[in-house]
Amino acid sequence: MRKINDYYSKKAKKNKYPARSVYKLEEVQQKYKFLRRGDSVLDLGCYPGSWSLFAAEVVGPKGIVVGVDLQQADRSPRPDSAPIHWLTQDIMEPELIGAVRKYRPAFKVLISDLAPKTTGNRWADAQKSLILVRQTLMLAEELLLNKGHYLCKVFQGEDFPDFVEEVKKKFVMAKVLKPKSSRVESREVFVLGMEFKKHVID
Ligand SMILES: C[S@@+](CC[C@H](N)C(=O)[O-])C[C@H]1O[C@@H](n2cnc3c(N)ncnc32)[C@H](O)[C@@H]1O
């Protein structure tokens, strides 16, 4: 296991990404191609910035990336990438929607690698994660374009099946994914929702 972690950490360093987590996003992108040239992307929990940098490269100069985190990110996008706007904000605060809308009224893709500060207590950590995850789904409802896409990291707890059902209702296609670069011993998985059904009221 350690070998795999070292492999992705070294690869990230070599390719000048600040975090190995970029390879989880890359793997989902390779399989589902949910990020496209010209897309607008909202990245929640973006610090230190690997996902935003990767997304900005994929969507290219006609796209845009807005990254949000409690911690201040400041990396410059690579050449031939979309501009990245870094916001230092709490995603739980209602002001976030207005702050994000200064850049785009709505987004084609919302990605979230948010992780709460863990306590070591599995149940408590899963609950904290679920609060953040539910907030990302609420933000997706506000900020995603019709037929937009959603990718969210979740630490599986007892409410996880209910959350997946919610995503299934709101998107044409929903999948639970465990990328190879995600530690096997970790309870993290990624929920992908493709083609948001903007006007479905349940
Ligand atoms: C695993 S890191 C993200 C790594 C990032 N995707 C990358 O590739 O560089 C999770 C982030 O979630 C952020 N976070 C946790 N709770 C948050 C909240 N309420 N609002 C904004 N960001 C939060 C943390 O500050 C942390 O930087």
UniProtKB/TrEMBL annotation:
Main localization category: cytoplasm
Signal peptide range: none
Enzyme class: transferase
InterPro entries for the chain: RNA_methyltr_RlmE (IPR050082), RNA_MeTrfase_FtsJ_dom (IPR002877), rRNA-MeTfrase_E (IPR015507), SAM-dependent_MTases_sf (IPR029063)
Residues binding S-adenosyl-L-methionine: G49, W51, D69, D90, D113
Domain Ribosomal RNA methyltransferase FtsJ span(s) in chain numbering: 17-196
Catalytic machinery residues: K153
Annotated GO MF terms: rRNA (uridine-2'-O-)-methyltransferase activity
Record bears the keyword Methyltransferase: yes
Protein origin, superkingdom: Bacteria
Intracellular or extracellular location(s): Cytoplasm
Keyword annotations from UniProtKB, A to Z: Cytoplasm, Methyltransferase, rRNA processing, S-adenosyl-L-methionine, Transferase
Gene Ontology cellular-component terms listed: cytoplasm
Enzyme nomenclature, EC number: 2.1.1.166
Reaction(s) catalysed (UniProt annotation): uridine(2552) in 23S rRNA + S-adenosyl-L-methionine = 2'-O-methyluridine(2552) in 23S rRNA + S-adenosyl-L-homocysteine + H(+)
Family membership: Belongs to the class I-like SAM-binding methyltransferase superfamily. RNA methyltransferase RlmE family.
Functional note: Specifically methylates the uridine in position 2552 of 23S rRNA at the 2'-O position of the ribose in the fully assembled 50S ribosomal subunit.
Official protein name in the record: Ribosomal RNA large subunit methyltransferase E
Species for this entry: Desulforhopalus singaporensis
Gene behind this protein: rlmE
